[in-house]
Amino acid sequence: MTVMSKNPAAAPAVQSGGKGAISIRNVTKIYDPGGVNVVAVDNCSLEIAPGEICMIVGPSGCGKTTLLNAIAGFHSITSGTIHLDGELLCGPDKPKAEQGADRIVVFQNGALFPWKTIRDNVAYGPIVQGRLSPVEARGKADHMLAEAGLHDVGDKYPGEVSSGMARRAEIVRALINDPRVLLLDEPYRAMDALTKSIMHEALLEMYDRTKVTIFFITHDLEESIFLGDRVVVMTTRPAQVKKIVDVRIPRPRNYKVLSSNEFRVLFAEAKDAVHEEAIKAFEAGERELA
Amino acid sequence: MSGDGTSSVAIQRGGGAPARPRAPTGIAYFQYVLNKKLRSPTPYLMALGIGGWILIYWLFSEVWNLPRFEKMPGPVAVISDWFSRKPFQGTSIFTETYYVHIWVSVRRIMIAFAIATAIGVPLGLIMGWSRRFKDYAFPILETLRPIPILAWVPLAILMFKGLETPVIFLATLASLFVTVLNTMLGVESIDEAYFRAAGCLGSKPRQVFWHVVIPGSLPFIFTGLQISMGVAWFSLVAAEMVSGDYGLGYLILSSYVNSVTVPMVIGMLTLGFVGWITSALVRMAGNQMMQWRTRALALEGR
């Protein structure tokens, strides 16, 4: 909490006026595997503005994914509150948020349904929610896939396209629902640097069109500064906010930003904070929790 | 959108959309596959393997008359009777009873397999999906499953009248256990991420069942169905030997009892071929229903 008081949790005024403000207040999560209490997240507070790209960086197993799971409604929290646009998602009387299409997760290893074509994957949300008829939903899916540069892949199954295409299609599958928040859990972790840089530009382009709030977990500092409005560095477990780096590089950004002086300064600033925590995490040597 | 934005679109197009040559379809595709097969060593090795096996069988039983093989009808005796218009020992492809035996067995298998699948797949899906239902049902399944199917024979005869129903019951039972267990494991094998994704996208439980649980467990279900087809044949033949009037199991045992050994071997080989065909049919149905898997495996060259 001392860290937090130095760095007020108030959100910066980024593209405000939209929807998708997340307010995490004093959230604590305690797991008890085998009867031993493990504090995964300790009294963590963070305000995310509507339309912000908020990058969460921290050592492996520090509790970043725990926060994401709490927002998405996969796991309960022990204490504290999480609000979305002023509505309570989870809190003292309701430890686990309901899952809903206003907060959509893009998973680390990809979770396009392998048994559905890419078109049917993208059309899935509007169909099951009853917002569009199957025909309309498939039409919109084709349109959005084309907009994202994914031509002619609608008929293919996820197993037939590259991992980069599959991941982009997964983001389109989320965006077709017009969510308030996109929750990304290290989506580009397994990708090579070249594919990654193309994925980044594609994501930013989709962001520029939708201005959806993005909660993005990563290990990759370069990625976090290139994409983010703010980089939130977490401490090693139990997770708290250690440092928030404001990234004031103007948008739209392209890869040339990576070699700018401004970028290097921000990178060094964030690197120091992350490195310190990485050493602590390594010395603690604890097993990662989901 | 600025110039930078458009340039990134250009990058994506460059990576994604160059015209790909179309894959051959229809007869052209069949020719391609056939040519590829004929250029690989597989068909020749298979022919060699079958030829070698028959040669050894022939040498052991008809040329050298080795101990233990002297009473076994050799390939020449079996094949000449099997394809003879006037079979010496009474059974050939030209005798009507041969087809009656095959048909009776196949019909029993189809009924047993259909019942076992119709009950087993839904039961397994629900057991895999609902923790509570599994808690009720699993101990019973695990106690009944290890009982060898032959141990059920007396009970089956007591429970069901006639000759037909006990036999079908036994085959159904054996096949049912396999199907239930594999289907349940199939549901449990589905990656948690798919359930979470379905939840995020706004699915109701019924939709999760239909769009995630069923398609996600299909690979396990079809592996289970192939095994279940095998055990159905196994228990059918056992049951036909104990109680029956027709069927391949009955043909084999009655030939033995009447000391005509050639029809016995004909019955065995016929079982082998028919069993192979039924299990291939199940595999083909599986590939048809799981295009997503077939196509992805084809890309890996499998």
Q: What brief labels describe this structure?
A:
heterodimer, A: alpha/beta, Rossmann fold, 10 strands, 21% strand, globular, disordered N terminus, B: 302 residues, mainly alpha, flat
How would you explain this protein's 3D organization?
The complex is a heterodimer of chains A (290) and B (302). By secondary structure, chain A is α/β, with parallel strands linked by helices. Chain A is built from 8 helices and 10 strands. Chain A has a single domain (2-102, 179-284), classed as P-loop containing nucleotide triphosphate hydrolases (Rossmann fold), CATH 3.40.50. In chain A, 35% of the residues lie in helices and 21% in strands. In chain A, a hairpin with a 6-residue loop joins strand 9 and strand 10. The two termini of chain A are 24 Å apart. Chain B is flat and about 70 Å long. Chain B has helices at 3-16, 26-39, 42-63, 75-82, 96-129, 131-144, 153-159, 164-188, 192-200, 205-242, 248-257, 261-289, 291-299. Chain B has 13 helices and no strands. Chain B is an all-alpha fold and 302 residues long. The A-B interface holds A 72-74, 99-101, 103-105, 107, 109, 111, 113-117, 124-125, 128-129, 148-153, 157-160, 165, 173-174, 177, 198, 201-202, 204-205, 208, 252-254 and B 1-2, 4-5, 7-9, 11-13, 15-17, 191, 193-194, 196-204, 207, 211-212, 215-216, 218, 290-293, 295-296, 299.
What is the secondary structure topology, with strand pairs?
The complex is a heterodimer of chains A (290) and B (302).
Chain A: H1 2-6, E1 22-31, E2 38-48, E3 53-57, H2 64-72, E4 79-84, E5 87-90, E6 103-106, H3 118-128, H4 134-147, H5 163-175, E7 181-185, H6 193-210, E8 213-218, H7 221-227, E9 230-234, E10 241-246, H8 261-284
Parallel strand pairs in A: 3-8, 3-9, 6-7, 7-8
Antiparallel strand pairs in A: 1-2, 1-4, 4-5, 9-10
Helix pairs in contact in A: 3-4, 3-5, 5-6, 7-8
Chain B: H1 3-16, H2 26-39, H3 42-63, H4 75-82, H5 96-129, H6 131-144, H7 153-159, H8 164-188, H9 192-200, H10 205-242, H11 248-257, H12 261-289, H13 291-299
Helix pairs in contact in B: 4-12, 5-6, 5-8, 5-10, 5-11, 7-8, 8-10, 9-10, 10-11, 10-12, 11-12
